[in-house]
Design a protein that fits this description.
six-stranded antiparallel β-sheet; alpha+beta; two-stranded antiparallel sheet; globular; 187 residues; Thiol Ester Dehydrase, Chain A
């Protein structure tokens, strides 16, 4: 559950304090990754009786955190002064979901270089399999002390490249790279 630890402290994510499992270079990599399944919490529901728009991003953030831990970024990594920051996000809310309903998230690595990751989240209803929402994000690896982007260390780059290779055959999601704007018919 999300919450504040104490006044003036950071938001607590569901995976906070869980560390990460050691990376196994021989283990198969799912394409796409499925690292998070949960249910719609009461505090995520708005006055319309459905999950609030901001909470879609909250859950996609939890999915990112699961991905970070999968590749080896946890509290110890951040305490050493490095992290991934989100620099761009685009959401597509496609269907409503209500309190208590199950949701399943997948994550596809669309592209990467030594500093950046382009990821794509997909949220499905946990029972029906209906597509609920998608989130596309550009992340940048940073040296938090220097306040600038830097290349990921070689072991992290190797893990990201292994995921990229595993995801290379996946089709590009329909919502990926879509511009936002009002589409008008030409006369």
């Amino acid at each position: 559950m999300h919450g504040m630890n104490k006044p003036g402290h950071a938001l607590t994510t569901p995976l906070e304090g869980t560390g990460h499992r050691p990376w196994d270079p021989q283990a198969p990599i799912a394409a796409p990754l499925c690292l998070l399944q949960t249910t719609v919490a009461p505090q995520w529901v708005d006055y319309n009786g459905h999950m609030s728009e901001s909470c879609y991003l909250l859950v996609f953030g939890d999915n990112s955190d699961a991905f970070f831990r999968f590749i080896g970024i946890d509290e110890a990594y951040r305490a050493a002064g490095h992290s991934l920051y989100t620099v761009q996000t685009q959401l597509h809310n496609l269907r409503e979901v209500s309190e208590g309903e199950p949701i399943r998230l997948t994550l596809q690595l669309l592209d990467c270089d030594d500093k950046r990751l382009h990821i794509f989240h997909t949220m499905f209803h946990g029972r029906s399999g209906d597509l609920l929402a998608t989130g596309e994000q550009m992340l940048v690896h940073v040296d938090m002390r220097a306040g600038r982007s830097i290349a990921m260390p070689p072991e992290l780059q190797a893990r990201v490249q292994a995921i990229r290779a595993a995801h290379a055959a996946l089709p590009k999601p329909a919502q990926a790279g879509q511009p936002i704007g009002i589409r008008r018919r030409t006369p």
